Amino acid sequence: MNPILVDVLRGSTVESTHSGAFAIVDGDGALVASLGDIQRPIFPRSAIKVLQALPLVESGAADRLQLTDAELAIACASHNGEPEHVATALGMLKKAGLDAGALECGTQWPGRESVLRGMFSRQEQAGPLHNNCSGKHAGFVCVACQLALAGGSDPAEFTRGYIRAEHPLMREVGAALAATTDTDLAKAPVGTDGCSIPTYGIPLRQLALAFARVATGQGLAPERASAARRLRQAVARAPFMVGGTGRFDTDVMALLGERVFCKVGAEGVYCASLPEQGLGVALKIDDGNARGAEVAMAALIEAFVRLGDAERQAMTDFSAPVLKNWNGIEVGGLRAGAALLSLNGSTAQ
């Protein structure tokens, strides 16, 4: 049974808890810290979008299309569907000579109330560009077009069905995931993600290894190490594109820049690269709770990243958020569990 990573307080009393597991690995693959079962395969979902975006750079598509930092960042994103996100994903497709009809991620209404109100006031309908994965899929389409041109195929025709596991594009994406995690995907549990591409069950330790490699380039071919670094730097320069207003990923990376690359995945998953420390992090909250995953990730950042006084104070908003009721009265909060708190202040390099 996995340990408690996060407590939920009502007043000063623990009302609920979130158990889970995490692994922290260095660039050589050595385990630096862990709690819970880190060998059980879990579906990382959207937490691995930076790994899935590696072929966008490695294939030459990013250079040929002259993709900007914002466009590379949104290829790694689970965004709010705000107007800037929609415009950026559409811009990528236009550079590839296609439009939103090429996306196979499905239609999704944005979850942020202010965005919805704006759309309703303008009598706009949701489309695939509003899907939180539209940037990732725009990146997929760009790679598929690159593969089509290399093979002498029509890009519009070649991209159809790119979400299927047997499509050449998805085979490229799977190969990048397998290589960075040292995982044989043919033997891994497999399912279908929310955006319709295959998702594979991978242990937390292997996911942490992949993110340590993204942080350091160790264990990667030079071209792949360069691609990982380019994607990390693009996200640091355009963190809004990875999430958006009020999102943990965006806010933490806007605060800490290139020192932290972090990415949420559905069902309580978080992965991160800590380049200064040369570490990769992967965590999973057992009950799939997103706010629990954010608190745990914030606590690990506090423990392993060197922070200034102002930065540490700012991080407490994420590691120990206050809960208020509809009258604005403080009623409790969340905090890292005892096992995570024991890491704080003792391991930052």
Automatic annotation (TrEMBL):
Lineage: superkingdom: Bacteria
Name used for this protein in its record: Asparaginase
